[in-house]
Structure formats: structure tokens, C-alpha cells
Specification:
The longest helix is centred in the last third of the chain and has 56 residues. Helices cover about 80% and strands about 0% of the residues. By secondary structure, it is an all-alpha fold. It is globular and about 65 Å long.
């Protein structure tokens, strides 16, 4: 299969070159027969690339408990508490925006290393902060580092993974985010017994440890073959592909495919202005990609998942749990649930597809959020209300982890063409982080105005809109190469229809 540029006519840029594009199950034989060594190598690369995501997850999880003791030690106000919690997501947009350009300049691999270094600096400042002002400085640096990390990991994994395994592997950052959240919850519980002026510092300082392993990861993982092609380092790109695909014929096909897709980028020398000009004044196909990619990122956050995680002690306190140890213990159950169910998504995402899982996820979340709103509004401060609140919160994070959580990043990393992928993924990450920050920074104020239960009724309504968005704007990308996915957005009808068979792909591009 190949894509060629057709710059001399009004036709689509890309055309189908042979029948492989539309035959069979979209899987080349080599993709079906990858031996164990190549699969282990790709798996190791995906795991190491996802280590930065542990930092984001740990921060989300640990801050939910640490804020209790920070408030007591530094005597901060409720508004300062909201700003401290939410500012990390807002400021991370700077890292995400810069991450696209940085990853195109120095490579995907070293961008991940830079992200870890910035986060380490911020985490160290937070752990040693003598005042709220210094704490905020460290928080800002940590946010920038996280912005770089969450943007680049899915891009790197998508570019190094075979099509047949890309969905599962690109979900790894979400697994590691969940693992980080769980570790943060455990850290809260373990160190909560220390003196108040020490415990939250230890909780935040432990977050430095995961980033240390990234130094080792940089020695192990290769650079993205697609980035290497963009730099005209073809021999190195082929060497990486040989480690990830167990067939020289398939490697040659993929290499040729990447070179053709990268041709437009190299012709423009990948100038920043040209890339952003295309994103800000997009063609119809790119506009559809942006609607899908940025839309799913925003819906992922405005359904309130980060607020649920950050403020789970507040939710459980409103339900009737009083003691700090009991509150932090309940949050560990939430973290375990969130982590376990992400494994379900990894198992199913390349078997049943992205879209069915998104339906299950968004419908399930809507039900749980509505149930939580009812429970907190009418059954709080009783043993039944406590049990139901824990059940609904765990159900919400479980359904999130099954679909909307991991698939959001998978889609964003695979739907954009190579010339735009890094910057467009950065733009999607910005939407996610801004949405997360706004929700986190307003949750307490909104809850005070309309009650905690009322806030979750709002989240339930937004979640129901997410179901509609998935139906209207999210196509199925299971089993398709990155270059094949690009052609799916050429046709408005096929994109909105959502279900696209590669046998219909010839209708998406115009023939000469």
C-alpha cells in the first residue's frame, strides 16, 4: 500500500496505490506473525515511553490527600486550594504546546527525557517549599514537565507500533497514569501518620522517583522511525523498523509508506509556521481530524474524572466518612478499581475496536455519575449512602478506564498525518489539560453553590453529550495503519458515519 502526493490537480493529496489497501482484514502477514522478540521489544519501548505518565498520575493521586495536610500546615484558603490543585493542568498546556515543536526538533525520545528533568525540578521545589508561593513555583514547573510528557508518549508509541497492536500499546500511558494515581493514594495513606509539616512534603517528594527510571529508559529505547525519516536518517529508521516488524519485506513497505507520507513535510522543511498555518486554517479533512481529536480530549475531562480523583476525599466526606485515615483508605479502593479496569481496555481495544468500548464507557459513566448525584443529594451521612457513593465513584472510574480514558489518547495519536502529528497532538493535549484545570479549579466553588450532588448531575449531563459526540464524530480505526487512517477523513460522509471498511477506501480518494 502506498500514498502519493498529487499536488498538480485539485484532487486529494493521497491516492490508493494498490489493492492491498482494501483487501482482507487490513493486516499484513508480517503483522500477524511478529515473533516474540519483536513483540517484547515494542512492548518494552511502550512501557519505558509511558513512564512520564506515572508522574501525572502520581501528582493527581497524591494531591488529593496531600492538600488536606497542606491546608492545615500552610493555612491556605479554599480558593488557594483550588488554584493549587488545578493550576498544574492549566500550566501544562505550555509544555504541551512547546512539546510539538521540541519533539520535531530534538526527537520524540529526548523530549521525554527533557519532560522528566523539568518535572523532577518542580517536584523537588514543592517538597521543600516553605510557603504557598514557593509551592506554586514548583507546581508550575511540574506542570510544564507533565505537559511535555503527556503529549509526546502517545505520539512516540503510535509511531513505533505495528498496526495490529497499536491500540493496546498506545493505551499504555493511560495504564501508567492509573498506576501513578494508585501509587499517589497509597503514598497518602502510608505517610499520613507523619507530622503535618512533614507528611505532605514526603508525599510530594516521592514523586521524583519514577522520573529517575526515565534516565535508564533513554538508554534502552530507540528514536521513532517516522521522526528519523523526517530527518532523512533512513538507515537508522530501517534499523528500528527491523526490530519492531519481523519481516524485511514488510519493513521495506512500511519504510516506503513513511517516506511518501513524510515527503510533504520534508518539502516544507517542517517549518513551524507552515504546520500551524495548516492547523489554524485547516482543509476539510484536517478540520474533521481536529474535531475528533480535540473534541474527545475535552470531553474526556469535562465529564469530571480529574475532579472525581482530586476531590475524592471531599466526595466521601460529603457522603458521610469523617476520619482522614478512612477517607484516604477509601480512595485506595478507587485507585485499585481504576487501575484494574484499564487492563480490560488493553485486552479489548484491538479486538472489539475503539468505538464499541467508547459506547460502553460513556453510557456507563453517565449512569454512575447520575447515581452518585442522587446518592449525595438524598442519601448522604448514612452507612447506605457511604457504600453507594463508593460504589458509584468506583463504577465511574471503571467505565472511564475501559474506554474514554485510554482511547482518547489512542485516537489523538493515530488520526493526524505525519506532517501534523506532533503539533496536532500537542493541541489535543492542551484541550485536555485546560479542561481538566478548569474543572479542578472550580469544583469546590461550584459544589458550594449547587451542592456536590448537583455538580455530579451536571457531569452526568455532559457525559450523555459525550455519547452523542462519539456516535457523530468518532470513526473506527482498529487495524488500520496510520497512513490508511489519514484517508478516512477525506470524506465527510464516511467520517460522520463512523464505520468505515477499508473495502470502501477507494471511495475516499479521487483517482486520476
Amino acid at each position: 500500500m502506498g500514498l502519493v502526493e498529487n499536488g498538480k490537480s485539485g484532487h486529494s493529496k493521497y491516492e490508493k496505490m494498490d489493492s492491498d489497501f482494501v483487501e482482507g482484514e487490513n493486516l499484513q502477514p508480517a503483522e500477524k506473525t511478529n515473533n516474540k522478540s519483536t513483540k517484547k521489544y515494542v512492548l518494552a519501548c511502550a512501557m519505558f515511553a509511558s513512564l512520564n505518565s506515572v508522574l501525572l498520575g502520581y501528582d493527581v493521586g497524591v494531591m488529593s490527600g496531600a492538600i488536606i495536610f497542606i491546608q492545615e500546615d500552610l493555612h491556605i484558603t479554599e480558593v488557594q486550594e483550588e488554584v493549587l490543585v488545578g493550576i498544574l493542568s492549566i500550566i501544562s498546556l505550555l509544555g504541551s504546546l512547546a512539546g510539538g515543536k521540541t519533539s520535531d526538533a530534538i526527537g520524540r525520545k529526548w523530549t521525554m527525557g527533557f519532560a522528566a528533568a523539568v518535572f523532577q525540578t518542580g517536584a523537588a521545589i514543592m517538597a521543600l517549599a516553605p510557603s504557598f508561593t514557593i509551592l506554586m513555583v514548583g507546581r508550575l514547573l511540574a506542570g510544564i514537565g507533565i505537559g511535555f510528557g503527556v503529549m509526546i508518549a502517545p505520539v512516540y508509541i503510535a509511531e513505533i507500533s505495528p498496526s495490529i497492536d497499536r491500540g493496546a500499546l498506545t493505551s499504555f500511558p493511560e495504564i501508567f497514569i492509573n498506576l501513578g494515581i494508585l501509587l499517589g493514594y497509597v503514598s497518602n495513606y502510608v505517610f499520613s501518620g507523619l507530622p503535618v509539616h512533614i507528611n505532605w512534603r514526603v508525599m510530594l517528594g516521592v514523586g521524583i522517583l519514577p522520573s529517575v527510571f526515565i534516565i535508564f529508559a533513554l538508554i534502552i529505547i530507540p528514536e521513532s522511525p517516522r521522526w528519523l525519516v523526517m530527518q532523512n536518517r533512513i538507515v537508522e529508521a530501517k534499523s528500528v523498523l527491523l526490530k519492531t516488524i519481523d519481516s524485511e519485506r514488510e519493513v521495506e513497505e512500511r519504510l516506503a509508506e513513511i517516506q511518501l507520507a513524510a515527503g510533504h513535510s520534508n518539502a516544507e522543511k517542517y517549518e513551524e509556521r507552515a504546520v500551524w498555518q495548516e492547523l489554524l486554517n485547516p482543509s476539510p479533512a484536517v478540520k474533521r481530524m481536529l474535531i475528533t481529536g480535540c473534541g474527545i480530549q475535552c470531553f474526556q475531562q469535562i465529564t469530571g474524572i480529574d475532579a472525581t480523583v482530586y476531590y475524592s476525599p471531599t466526595i466521601f466526606r460529603d457522603a458521610g466518612i469523617k476520619g482522614n485515615s478512612e477517607l484516604l483508605g477509601a480512595t485506595i479502593g478507587v485507585g485499585c478499581t481504576k487501575t484494574m479496569f484499564i487492563l480490560v481496555a488493553i485486552f479489548l481495544i484491538d479486538r472489539v475496536g475503539r468505538k464499541p468500548l467508547l459506547y460502553v464507557s460513556t453510557i456507563g459513566m453517565t449512569t454512575c455519575l447520575f447515581g452518585l448525584g442522587l446518592t449525595l443529594s438524598f442519601m448522604g451521612n448514612g452507612p447506605v449512602g457511604v457504600k453507594l457513593a463508593i460504589f458509584w465513584v468506583c463504577g465511574n472510574v471503571a467505565f472511564f478506564s475501559v474506554g474514554l480514558g485510554p482511547i482518547c489518547w489512542v485516537l489523538t495519536s493515530e488520526i493526524f498525518p505525519l506532517r501534523l502529528r506532533a503539533q496536532a497532538s500537542a493541541l489535543g493535549a492542551v484541550g485536555s489539560r485546560v479542561s481538566s484545570g478548569l474543572i479542578a479549579m472550580t469544583f469546590l466553588s461550584v459544589s458550594r453553590a449547587i451542592t456536590v450532588g448537583g455538580t455530579f448531575f451536571v457531569f452526568a449531563a455532559i457525559s450523555s453529550l459525550t455519547v452523542v459526540f462519539v456516535y457523530k464524530c468518532v470513526p473506527e480505526t482498529k487495524g488500520k495503519s496510520l497512513e490508511q487512517i489519514e484517508t478516512m477523513f477525506q470524506s465527510d460522509g464516511q467520517w460522520r458515519g463512523g464505520e468505515l471498511e477499508l473495502g470502501d477506501a477507494e471511495n475516499l480518494v479521487q483517482k486520476q
